[in-house]
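Try this one yourself first.
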């Protein structure tokens, strides 16, 4: 690898100070660059497809604030709408008209959603949907998949990919075994494993929750028939099917992965894109199920800042932009060009790699593949990914700092950025040992 050319003096100063102030110096763990080595970059500005650090370095950004920035950072229409809303204050803690508008847009776009409740994060949406699954069915057990992430609520922190997973042992200290005892796990894309869990736990499983396209084990699409099979299995067993579309909602397609794959779950969680870069989450689904949520029904869930006018405004504008003609075709085009280019470069330079993309979401692994589940993904050469990541930073490309995170493009990424990225990858991969 070439010597560091990046001047990150101010980043280093700020991050060094941060480490004494916040655990690990960050507000969320992956940002700390632990899995790629090196130290995190501290940023101070974003625009379009670009992000600038405090030392003035400019990078092509494929993190997109972990998904929300699908229209490109600081889209002028979003910023201008936010400024207008801001003049009237930040939060009312009471109903506002913008909630209706965003709710109508979500309901008309997402096939499964007949009613929606806004919250403040994806974690909150998943935590609430779990309570609702249990309230509606009167059952306690749920099935989740190894390597899928549904936020950091206790019940979802079950170790992925090992024998202890099926025993419901928690991933983190502080999570009582009793809390995760009802969280059953199966490998992603393994219908037989799900069938077995239903057989072993008759009439006890409230539902199945999954990322319909996984982004949290790296990019992992569903095998043909997997989503359809889960729809049948849940229906046959009186259980609910829940798509966690916090990442895929309005990204894979305007109607999310459920529209793209034509499989309609009973409930859906959303976040990221529908907040246009402000803190938002949502859960929604069939009217008979959503009618259980307080105050319409007895299942309690609430939030001080939920549905605040600023977050709703950013969401409304973002969806308006995404609903314009040809946006998803555009995302598909630039992103498939990017991933094809990266895989070609890997081949030319002698590195085993596989990957793919759907619309504005992509990923690749430093392994031969194929990758169908988290165990397959874990065969990747993560040390090589760390070096690749560092090299790409040196060449002005900011990728998610982990082999097990998806990448995101935006409507602001053009051929110029894609060509530069592929060119950078060529330089970096040529200098990596295969
Ligand atoms: N579900 C999925 C599929 C996610 O990707 C994430 C966040 N990456 C979450 C839930 C949690 O969302 P948040 O970070 O907003 O709490």
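Now uncover the answer:
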């Amino acid at each position: 690898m070439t010597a560091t050319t990046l001047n990150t003096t101010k980043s280093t100063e700020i991050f060094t100070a941060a480490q004494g102030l916040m655990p690990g110096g960050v507000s969320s763990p992956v940002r700390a660059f632990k899995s790629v080595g090196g130290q995190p970059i501290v940023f101070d500005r974003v625009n379009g497809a670009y992000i600038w650090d405090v030392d003035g370095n400019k990078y092509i950004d494929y993190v997109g604030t972990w998904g929300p920035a699908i229209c490109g950072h600081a889209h002028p229409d979003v910023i201008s709408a936010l400024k207008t809303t801001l003049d009237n204050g930040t939060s009312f803690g009471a109903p506002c008209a913008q909630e209706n508008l965003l709710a109508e847009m979500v309901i008309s776009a997402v096939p499964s959603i007949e009613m929606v409740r806004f919250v403040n994060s994806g974690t909150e949406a998943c935590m609430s949907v779990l309570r609702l699954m249990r309230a509606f069915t009167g059952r306690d057990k749920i099935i989740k998949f190894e390597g899928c992430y549904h936020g950091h609520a206790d019940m979802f922190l079950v170790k992925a990919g090992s024998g202890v997973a099926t025993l419901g042992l928690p991933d983190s200290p502080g999570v009582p075994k009793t809390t995760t005892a009802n969280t059953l796990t199966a490998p992603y894309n393994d219908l037989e494993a799900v069938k077995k869990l239903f057989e072993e736990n008759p009439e006890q499983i409230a539902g199945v929750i999954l990322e319909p396209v996984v982004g949290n084990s790296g990019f992992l699409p569903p095998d043909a028939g997997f989503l359809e099979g889960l729809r049948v299995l849940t229906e046959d067993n009186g259980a609910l099917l829940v798509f966690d579309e916090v990442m895929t909602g309005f990204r894979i397609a305007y109607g999310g992965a459920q529209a793209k794959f034509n499989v309609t779950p009973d409930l859906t969680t959303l976040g990221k894109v529908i907040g246009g870069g402000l803190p938002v989450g949502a859960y929604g689904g069939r009217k008979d199920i959503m009618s259980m949520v307080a105050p319409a029904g007895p299942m309690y869930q609430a939030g001080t800042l939920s549905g605040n006018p600023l977050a709703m405004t950013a969401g409304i504008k973002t969806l308006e932009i995404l609903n314009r003609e040809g946006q998803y075709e555009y995302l598909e085009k630039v992103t498939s060009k990017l991933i094809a280019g990266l895989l070609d470069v890997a081949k030319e330079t002698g590195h085993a790699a596989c990957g793919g993309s759907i619309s504005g979401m992509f990923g690749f692994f430093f392994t031969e593949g194929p990758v169908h589940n988290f165990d397959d993904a874990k065969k990747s050469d993560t040390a090589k990914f760390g070096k690749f990541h560092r090299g790409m930073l040196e060449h002005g490309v900011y990728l998610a700092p982990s082999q097990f995170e998806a990448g995101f493009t935006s409507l602001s990424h053009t051929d110029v950025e894609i060509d530069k990225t592929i060119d950078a990858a060529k330089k970096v991969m040529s200098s990596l040992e295969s």
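Discussion: The pocket of 4'-deoxy-4'-aminopyridoxal-5'-phosphate is lined by residues 66, 121-123, 126, 149-151, 211, 215-216, 244, 246-247, 271, 281 (CB under 6 Å). The chain is about 35% helix and 15% strand.
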